[in-house]
Write a structure and sequence with these properties.
Elements (H helix, E strand, L loop, with lengths): L4 E10 L2 E11 L4 E5 L6 H7 L10 E9 L2 E2 L7 H7 E4 L11 H12 L5 H14 L3 H4 L12 H14 L4 E5 L7 H14 L4 E5 L3 H7 L2 E7 L6 E8 H6 L4 H7 L5
Parallel strand pairs: 3-8, 3-9, 6-7, 7-8
Antiparallel strand pairs: 1-2, 1-4, 4-5, 9-10
Helix pairs in contact: 3-6, 4-6, 6-7
The structure holds adenosine-5'-triphosphate and magnesium ion.
The site of magnesium ion has 3 residues, from helix 1.
Length: about 260
């Protein structure tokens, strides 16, 4: 289920504006890779380019390669919808579908692809996905109530359940804890730790403690100034990035001297 992503010399544009330049990174399966760096350096932009969500924005495009276990996601004839099914995404603000129940939220993506799933298969999948997201015990007696009625941390775990219900190979998370309290944040971090045994995970975070707690590899991005493209400055084992980085700018950022 877990696959490798190789990014080769990727430039990412919004119309004429080159937001990110020359990114080359190898993202390992069954591991957590953190993207860190100051606001505007392109972390979310790079993340969205990994499942072809970037091009949903009008005028947005990329130049370069993103390989999923060797297959170019931007190759001719590749269906972006299929890419997004293989590479799921969890956003900063929990976004359960407000009119749907907890159960319907978990099944939303699956039923798009497979309308004729039997009731008992659906029940199994709902339980498995909610257990996978560490939410089952809290909601098993109220699967029929609206997902929007859950707490913020529960809603975020519901979104994770929805993302894993379609059996993706990769999970992308853009600041998944930034709207959550510390307890919910730790719950999500524990969950990420468990999920990495099955998935390739990429997480964007502004929280340095979080990056060092949850990730195996860290990519530090930076930007030279307004209007300049963001670049990958350093990519290494998380322990190395936080204790003994090679580049001065990385050192300055992780030690809180800027950003
Ligand atoms: N929809 C868009 N249209 C045009 N430019 C955009 C769009 N989204 C982002 N950008 C620009 O691309 C650059 C990178 O933005 P991005 O959101 O990827 O940064 P980020 O590192 O995720 O920042 P933050 O930490 O604040 O979330 C910025 O200059 C930003 O203004
Ligand atoms: Mg962002």
């Amino acid at each position: 289920m877990s696959k490798r992503i190789e990014i080769n010399d990727l430039d990412i544009y919004y119309g004429d504006f080159k937001a990110v330049e020359g990114v080359t990174v190898d993202i390992e399966p069954r591991a957590v890779t953190a993207f860190i760096g100051p606001s505007g350096c392109g972390k979310s932009t790079v993340l969205r380019s990994l499942n072809r969500m970037h091009e949903v924005i009008s005028g947005a495009w990329v130049d370069g390669e993103v390989l999923l276990d060797g297959a170019n996601l931007y190759g001719p004839g590749v269906d972006p919808v299929n890419v997004r099914r293989q590479i799921g995404m969890v956003f900063q603000r929990p976004n359960p579908f407000p009119t749907m129940t907890i159960r319907e939220n978990v099944l939303a993506g699956v039923l798009l692809n497979n309308r004729r799933m039997s009731k008992s298969d659906q029940d199994d999948l709902v339980e498995r996905s909610l257990r996978g997201a560490n939410l089952w015990n809290e909601v098993k007696d109220r699967l029929g109530v609206p997902g929007s009625g859950l707490s913020g941390g529960q809603q975020q775990r519901l979104c994770i359940a929805r993302a894993i219900a379609v059996s993706p190979d990769v999970l992308l998370m853009d600041e998944p804890c930034s709207a959550l309290d510390p307890i919910s944040t730790l719950a999500i971090e524990d969950l990420i730790e468990e999920l990495k045994t099955e998935y390739t995970i990429v997480i964007v975070t502004h929280n340095m403690q979080q990056a060092s707690r949850v990730s195996d590899k860290t990519a530090f991005f930076n930007i030279a100034g307004t209007g300049k493209p963001g670049k990958l400055i350093e990519f290494d084992e998380t322990a190395k990035i936080f204790s003994n980085p090679t580049v001065q700018a990385t050192e300055d950022y992780v030690s809180g001297r800027f950003g």
